[in-house]
Specification:
Elements lengths: L4 H16 L4 H6 L4 E9 L3 E2 L3 H11 L4 E4 L6 E2 L4 E8 H31 L6 E3 L9 H10 L13 E3 L1 H7 L2 H11 L6 E5 L2 H9 L4 E5 L3 H11 L4 E5 L7 H5 L5 E3 L2 H4 L6 E5 L3 E2 L1
Length: 283
């Protein structure tokens, strides 16, 4: 998993503290401290798995002696009823970490599954599916990781690693040319400059300004096709806005280079995954 392990542990410890606070009242009052058990993490619906290393680390943060035995890995297609992992050790740690581990697994697997469906729909064509910054605060790195697990690619990670000039920037600057000039003057020469446009006039202005990427915002497939012909390879072309499983193939057929989909992360349905616990044993 290509994620900073120190930052990941910090995130998990923060989330555990949010959930546990001063202690798990229910588990600590019912489950003996020396009780052990085995929990089985099970897929309740088919999808693409993502977040297994995160789930395992949740339990190990609670008890370093916990054994997390994965039977499937990130990127694997899983069917309903498949046992994804076994968690062995302290029954208290398993029950206390259950919800957070499942929250991560369900959310990230939902993102990977949705991404994989869209990637499959445009397979064999030119464009690739990319995400946006419409992510859950604090979880961006993990959610963008899940997009990659599903076969998609990442757009800029934050406001600092690329220039994306949108409609409000253009209004303030007084036009596309002025906005691009200002961005180019103050940004590193290594930073790509992208401009969001809504019509063919905007495409022409962006081309005249020499931008690297042109985002076609909420255009019809017919208008996108005209825009791609107008650009004629002089910049990369991104389609954005209102992309669904129903229209993504029509958008891909226009010849755009990439298709960004905010719904990959901002409104995705979590995959149904549960944890079943065996009867406890006493050490």
């Amino acid at each position: 998993m290509d994620f900073n392990p120190v930052e990941l542990r910090k995130l998990i410890e923060f989330c555990l503290h949010e959930d546990i606070g001063t202690g798990d009242l229910t588990t600590n009052s019912i489950v003996p401290g020396n009780a052990t058990s085995t929990g089985y993490i099970v897929a309740r619906e088919a999808g693409v798995l993502a977040g297994m290393p995160v789930a395992g680390l949740v339990f190990r943060c609670l008890d370093p002696e916990i054994q997390f035995l994965a039977h499937a890995g990130d990127g694997d297609p899983v069917e309903r009823g498949r046992v994804l992992a076994e968690v062995r050790g302290s029954a208290r740690a398993i029950l206390t970490g259950e919800r957070l581990a499942l929250n991560f697994l369900q959310r990230l697997s939902g993102i990977a599954t949705r991404t994989a469906r869209l990637v499959k729909l445009v397979a064999g064509g030119k464009p690739y599916i990319i995400d946006t910054r419409k992510t859950t605060p604090g979880l961006r790195a993990l959610e963008k990781y899940a997009v990659r697990v599903g076969g998609g690619r990442n757009h800029r990670f934050g406001l600092y690693d690329a220039v994306l000039i949108k409609d409000n920037h253009i209004k303030i600057a007084g036009g596309i040319a002025r906005a691009v000039e200002a961005a180019r003057r103050s940004s590193p020469h290594t930073a790509k400059i992208e401009v969001e446009v809504e019509n063919l006039a905007g495409v022409r202005e962006a081309l005249d300004a020499g931008v690297d990427i042109i985002m076609l915002d909420n255009m019809s497939p017919e208008l996108m096709r005209e825009a791609v012909a107008l650009v004629s390879g002089r910049a990369l072309v991104e389609a954005s806005g209102g992309i669904t499983e129903e229209n993504v193939q029509a958008v891909a057929a226009t010849g755009v280079d990439m298709i960004s989909v905010g719904a990959l992360t901002h409104s995705v349905k979590s995959l149904d995954i549960s944890l079943d616990l065996e009867e406890i044993k006493m050490k």
